[in-house]
Amino acid sequence: MSVCNTAVAVLPKIVSEEVVPLVGIYFFIYWQLHGKKAVASQLENKIRAEHLIACLGTATLAALARFELPLEAVAIGYAALVVACLLAAWLTRLQVFLYQALVLLGVAAFRVSTYNFYQLHQLFSSNVSSAVWTIVLLAAGVPVCLTMRKNAAQTFTGPRWATMLARHSEQPMFFVPFVLMAVLLALKVTPGMITLAWGAQAVLVFVLALWAKERSFRLAGLALLMLCVAKIVLWDVWQLNDPTAKYLTLIGSGILILGVSYLISRNREALREYL
């Protein structure tokens, strides 16, 4: 029995040591194929072998993250791959890495939703910190996407919906972590403080959106803030039995709304162009 346990413990390490070199091989082959200027056939124009090799390299890294990292940290590995692919797309101006980042974005969101969020009820669990780190890493990809969009030096090919998504990659890269954070707050914060937590998130998003000068981001922050107001009027005032939570929610939300109103009044001229 001890021999079997030792073999089970050693086997993943052996497998990882054999798989890791494949990543470098895949990307080396991709770079060699990409550097060739030979005329490709019509089939290769549709599905280029070099793109398949690049996808194999990234998929191998994702598989290593899935089987080598602790279960609660798998989503962090996926999010790190998203940022890595975005940086590769920005530095090399190769659209294949941007498409990979968008696919991995969905994979990371699915992992957080179906595992980390599901395990939040467990005591002494690190799923909360893992979910937060995943969301922060995904949000870190937004400035990279904005930089690529401002440069606008890349022509995208493929289906119309895919090229549209690639040209505006900052939208899914923002809204996925935005929604995930709102869901995490709803699941983990005490019921009496959910509205206040959402209001704080809305104000933070609105302030960052002013800096990024992105209309959809500001509207998302305002929409979440309006949701907080509606929740206060339709639910919190009538359902919260704890007077302390009720008054803190009302006072805190009022302060946050006043803060947003002040920011809007101070930036009225600039916001006319974007809102």
Q: What can be said about this structure in brief?
A:
With 275 residues, the protein is mainly α.
Structure overview:
The protein has 3 domains: 1-35 and 44-68, no CATH class; 70-188, no CATH class; 193-275. The protein has helices at residues 2-35, 42-46, 49-68, 74-92, 95-116, 127-151, 160-167, 170-188, 194-212, 215-239, 243-266, 268-274. It is mainly α and 275 residues long. The longest helix has 34 residues, at 2-35. The chain is built from 12 helices and no strands.
Give the helix/strand layout.
Elements: H1 2-35, H2 42-46, H3 49-68, H4 74-92, H5 95-116, H6 127-151, H7 160-167, H8 170-188, H9 194-212, H10 215-239, H11 243-266, H12 268-274
Helix pairs in contact: 1-3, 3-4, 4-5, 4-6, 5-6, 5-8, 6-8, 8-9, 9-10, 9-11, 10-11
| Discrete helix count | 12
What's the domain count? 3
Low-confidence stretches: 1-12, 37-46
Largest sheet: none
Quaternary structure? single chain
Percent range of helical residues: over 70%
- State the distance separating the first and last CA atoms: 68 Å
Average predicted confidence as pLDDT: 80
Query: What is the alpha-carbon Rg in Å?
Result: 23 Å
Residue fraction in strands: under 5%
* Helix-strand pattern: HHHHHHHHHHHH
Number of strands: 0
The general outline is flat
Helix/strand/pairing category: mainly alpha
Keywords for this entry:
mainly alpha, disordered N terminus, 3 domains, 275 residues, 12 helices
